[in-house]
Amino acid sequence: xxxxxxxxxxxxxxxxxxxxxxxxxxxxxxxxxxxxxxxxxxxxxxxxxxxxxxxxxxxxxxxxxxxxxxxxxxxxxxxxxxxxxxxxxxxxxxxxxxxxxxxxxxxxxxxxxxxxxxxxxxxxxxxxxxxxxxxxxxxxxxxxxxxxxxxxxxxxxxxxxxxxxxxxxxxxxxxxxxxxxxxxxxxxxxxxxxxxxxxxxxxxxxxxxxxxxxxxxxxxxxxxxxxxxxxxxxxxxxxxxxxxxxxxxxxxxxxxxxxxxxxxxxxxxxxxxxxxxxxxxxxxxxxxxxxxxxxxxxxxxxxxxxxxxxxxxxxxxxxxxxxxxxxxxxxxxxxxxxxxxxxxxxxxxxxxxxxxxxxxxxxxxxxxxxxxxxxxxxxxxxxxxxxxxxxxxxxxxxxxxxxxxxxxxxxxxxxxxxxxxxxxxxxxxxxxxxxxxxxxxxxxxxxxxxxxxxxxxxxxxxxxxxxxxxxxxxxxxxxxxxxxxxxxxxxxxxxxxxxxxxxxxxxxxxxxxxxxxxxxxxxxxxxxxxxxxxxxxxxxxxxx
Length: 544
Description:
Layout: E1 3-6, E2 16-22, E3 29-30, E4 35-40, E5 45-49, E6 54-59, E7 66-68, E8 72-77, H1 84-116, E9 128-131, E10 141-147, E11 154-155, E12 160-165, E13 170-174, E14 179-184, E15 191-193, E16 197-202, H2 208-213, H3 229-255, H4 262-271, H5 289-293, H6 302-309, H7 328-343, E17 346-354, H8 356-366, H9 375-389, E18 395-398, E19 401-404, E20 410-412, E21 414-416, E22 419-421, E23 424-425, H10 433-448, E24 462-466, E25 485-499, E26 502-516, H11 522-537
Parallel strand pairs: 20-24, 24-25
Antiparallel strand pairs: 1-8, 2-4, 2-7, 3-6, 4-5, 6-8, 9-16, 10-12, 10-15, 11-14, 12-13, 14-16, 17-26, 18-19, 20-23, 21-22, 25-26
Helix pairs in contact: 9-10, 9-11
């Protein structure tokens, strides 16, 4: 009987997986235990074994594509077996779950339609409700910085109504209508989404309450009855009015005022474009940003060309983005670090360490046969010993309680092709410098080869991140949750230092500790760094 192979759960935090490579093709035989595919989880790319035997009848998720855990990725069964019914059966359970929701949605929609078609008061003739304009391609809401007109002021078409702050800049907002500013709905300093009402313009003495009643609670116009003859008459009147406005704008462009957005005006001025030569595509023929961007000048007489040549050169080219599909690891890094940065109140402490004795000790140790250690190994060992003396740093925040770990598992940040992984050295304080060196090399090698297992990246109580090999002198890191702290290690710098009252050449290294203020106070973090500094400046104490 055919079996549906589903996306496996390859780590405790995995929500979806990506098929990196299918190792068995459709139509090929599969034995139980065969490697079906390589699957990229949020932490590593792992081999996925088959629990079934038979023929790979269908590949549902192709290489490079992703799906959630427990969703079908392939079907294994007997050669020639009908699998259409199997796929339908798998869909049935999820369809049944959503059937009730769909009916509720349809009922809600029907009720909404009934509400929208009920007669409501109409907006009086000549009254316009001004809505928040879209001032940038990414704008979702705007803030009224300043109203340039007050309630009761006369407004002419083209007058600056307000200064509006978008997500990118504060811009002037012109009125497309004339009349009296009857009502300011959004006050200075307040915000509202785009297309929501901000003011009302119309004839003096208009009943503003009646206008407001024509809008529902969402700030949208209510539907009007569709059976009245007045509707058709209004459409014709509106069409004639729109036509008159366009003619007026056109004539204004030839002999009078030209209507253009402030941004379009600035762009035209920067590019040396005469707005009179530009055809506006905005409301009522208004010139907007895209009109300037798409403007192609008409060929000019030779005398004008000479004048144009004297103008400053304006570079032109095509804006282009390359879209790179985010890996599962990249998505998870983004999700977890964002949660950590905004979920835990970070603060940072930096100390400068004299590395002369550490450099001499490392040189002596590495002179021994078959023995090699790095400065990072020394930092890891010193951190483990300092954590034993300052257990509060080796803790986790859990809302109602703080968990202080009695064991010391140090995570070591390792950069790989798709991002960053953190292999964990279990019981680090019990390991010698040479053992730390060997274990870090082994785990880092597995990480680079995508052979590291989820178990080897779980359970850290403290993390060390080292960018010294890249020449970085000092940096800060985001805490690797649920740890309370992460140590950022810079490069060793040769520079003048004062020793015994004399300036001599020294070697120093900066360490920065990022702390979760919920579990670690400033004094606690400072004491930990002082102990860590003592170990590194006197490495013989780490051998005791």
